[in-house]
């Protein structure tokens, strides 16, 4: 027996938190009866669970690593008709969502899944999952700017956590650094670099938690290995405990 919201999240209905909201709002039925209590446990193999009158599908969990190209957005639809990342995995039959976001101009590692419980574990603000970026900036970055990034930057939405910064290349007109952060604020890396006077020219995420982009080509995807999935599920288990 498992908690109802956990079963809903794993089935790809929504994140665990959003599943809890659906339950409280009376939009979920178990075996024909409306359930509004969050402590209810169900048998996912026997009980019939409906959300908004529709039975949830017992989908096989899918875990996809995509190398997102610039120009694609990570929302599931766009009123401005810009390309969305789901177009790059349209041959996958399951309903996928992105784990976190990359802005339109940012490239690199994006995790797509139908596992809402894992998504919650990897994206909740209290769960410090490292994200590593290669950042090409305008100008020859100095040690003072790097020191500021490593101490934290005051942005309009508050002080950032300290970043880890490694200088990769420094030329007269541009520099390349590797930056590691664990927060997920909107356009955070770009805003941090603007704050120290070195605007971003190119931004690419190369690592998310234990996952590394490697030589996956832009616009291409691959299924995670069983070893990678096992490590992610271990992180999820640690978060729940």
TrEMBL record:
CDD domains: PseudoU_synth_RsuA_like (cd02870). Its EC number is 5.4.99.-. Residues 2-61 form the RNA-binding S4 domain. GO terms for cellular component: cytosol. Gene3D superfamilies: Alpha-L RNA-binding motif, Pseudouridine synthase I, catalytic domain, N-terminal subdomain, RNA-binding S4 domain. GO terms for biological process: enzyme-directed rRNA pseudouridine synthesis. This is Pseudouridine synthase. Pfam families: PseudoU_synth_2, S4.
């Amino acid at each position: 027996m498992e908690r109802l919201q956990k079963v809903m999240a794993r089935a790809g209905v929504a994140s665990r938190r959003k599943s809890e909201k659906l339950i409280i709002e009376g939009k979920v039925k178990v075996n024909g009866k409306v359930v509004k209590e969050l402590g209810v446990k169900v048998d996912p193999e026997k009980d019939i669970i409906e959300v908004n009158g529709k039975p949830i599908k017992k989908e096989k969990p899918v875990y996809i690593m995509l190398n997102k190209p610039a120009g694609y957005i990570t929302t599931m639809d766009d009123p401005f008709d810009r390309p969305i990342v789901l177009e790059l995995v349209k041959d996958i039959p399951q309903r996928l969502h992105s784990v976190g976001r990359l802005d339109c101009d940012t490239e690199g590692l994006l995790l797509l899944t139908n596992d809402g419980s894992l998504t919650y574990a990897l994206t909740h603000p209290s769960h410090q999952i490292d994200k590593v970026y290669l950042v090409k900036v305008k100008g020859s970055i100095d040690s003072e700017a790097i020191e500021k990034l490593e101490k934290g930057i005051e942005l309009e939405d508050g002080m950032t956590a300290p970043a880890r910064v490694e200088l990769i290349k420094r030329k007269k007109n541009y520099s390349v650094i590797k930056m590691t952060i664990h927060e997920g604020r909107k356009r955070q890396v770009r805003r941090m670099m603007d704050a120290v006077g070195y605007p971003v020219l190119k931004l690419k995420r190369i690592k998310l938690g234990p996952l590394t982009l490697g030589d996956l080509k832009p616009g291409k995807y691959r299924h995670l290995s069983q070893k990678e999935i096992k490590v992610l599920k271990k992180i999820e288990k640690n978060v729940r405990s």
